[in-house]
Amino acid sequence: MVDPRMPSEPVTPAFAGRAPMSRWVAEAGEHLWPWHRGAFAEHRLMHTLALVAALAVSIVWGLAAAGELASGMVIGWWFGWSLLEIPVRLKTKPYVKEGPWWGARFRRASVMDMVCYVLFKNLLVGAVLFLTLKALGRLVA
Q1: 46-57: b (≥16 Cβ within 10 Å) or e
Q2: pLDDT of residue 121
Q3: Which of 35, 38, 76, 108 would suit a FRET pair with 90, their CA atoms being 20 to 30 Å apart?
Q4: How far is CA 100 from each of CA 6, 19, 36, rounded to the nearest angstrom?
Q5: DSSP letters along the chain, please?
Q6: Tens digit of each residue's pLDDT (9 = 90 or more) over 43-96
């Protein structure tokens, strides 16, 4: 059994050795794109399903921006995407940041770490997208 008070093993992401500005840009990409190139070389079905889901969610946000979808439908799709993103990230980017958001320490993520990270991240991204649609008058109740 793992002692929750003990820190888990440190991880060094591929972008960690870059210059500061380049590292920040790469880290932003890490948050927005849940898998890395070659991640599903042996799991083509999972890769295909994840790409189809990403395309579907993008279409849903586009339809919401066009005022064609009710907000409840967008929330449902976004939650579904979040549930898919958890196993994808556990397989391809199994780490979370340790310490403050501006720090550069990462550690291997447990399942609960990844659930919390993905759901909170997608809550923030979804809130920004919803507030943007609301400000543009495109949100259908």
Answers
A1: bbeebeebbeeb
A2: 92
A3: 76
A4: 18, 19, 24
A5: ---TTS---EE--GGGGS-HHHHHHHHHHHHH--S-TTTTTT-HHHHHHHHHHHHHHHHHHHHHHTT-SBHHHHHHHHHHHHHHHHHHHHHH--EEEESSTT--EEEEPPHHHHHHHHHHHHHHHHHHHHHHHHHTT--B-
A6: 777 778 778 888 888 898 888 888 888 888 888 888 988 998 898 888 888 889
The per-residue pLDDT for range 22-42, each reduced to its tens digit, is 777 877 877 777 776 666 666
Tokens at residue 97, please? 């940041």
Measured over the CA atoms of residue 98, residue 39, residue 47 and residue 70, the dihedral's sign is: positive
Name the strands in the sheet holding 95-98, side by side, starting at the edge strand that comes first in the sequence: 10-11, 105-108, 95-98
- Tokens matching residue 30: 């890490």
* Separation between Cα atoms, residue 15 and residue 93, nearest integer Å: 12
Q: How far apart are CA 139 and CA 129, in angstroms?
A: 10
